[in-house]
Amino acid sequence: MTAVPSSEIARRYREGITARFEAITATQQAAINAAAQLCYEQIKADRLIHVYGVGGHSYVGSEEFFFRAGGLANISPMFEPSLSLAGGGQKSTMLERVENIGDKIVKAHHLGPDNLLIITSAYGINACSIDAALEAKRRCCRVIGISSAEFAAHTPRDFVARHSSQKNLGEIADVLIDNHIPHGETLLELEGFPQKVGGTCNVLACFCINWLVMETIDLCLKNGVEPPVWKSANMIGGDEHNRRYLEAYTPRIKAL
Which of 61, 72, 148, 233 shows a CA-CA span of 20 to 30 A to 53? Predict the structure, then answer.
């Protein structure tokens, strides 16, 4: 079969995403290092790492962290199905703008001074993510944010989706990993069409998430700490490899 050359759209999208990857790796190493250190400390102390992906596509962030090949087994996602797109697209958008939900999710997981919470929020502005971050800090929990500094900076402080505090996630978190999602979230302009296309949030957020996980695992190995890492259950030996982690963490992680 004759190969079909990639289109101009494919080239432009690839180049746009690649430029964002390069911007992340050029600017976020210090933030990744700080975040990996916090994650390493939890692993060394045999504690869980809690993750919270707020509504819409940001929910994917908590799923990317959890129960995946090459991922950390001590991840405890704070899933709230009503915030996911599976619970309804319009409902997800409406609920992520409502205050007094995110804090209840933190309270329900009983986070405290010994805990670490990673919040994945594409834009880092909505009420549900800010409430969770504020409540976690009230409880002296350490917070890592993964969101877009550019998007937050270009969103008016009185925008309808914002928390009443008008804060950005990066102003609350102990560490912010900037995922470099552009303002508007999309990359490409098409001739004769006013709306940009080519989504970026999941691609860029998942890059940051997996980079953080890999740096954490590397830090564990350099310090003589065995990192708990899942193997694909679809590989020979996967179930056997994972069994000890399932036995260790199923009683401790609600989502397992």
Answer: 233
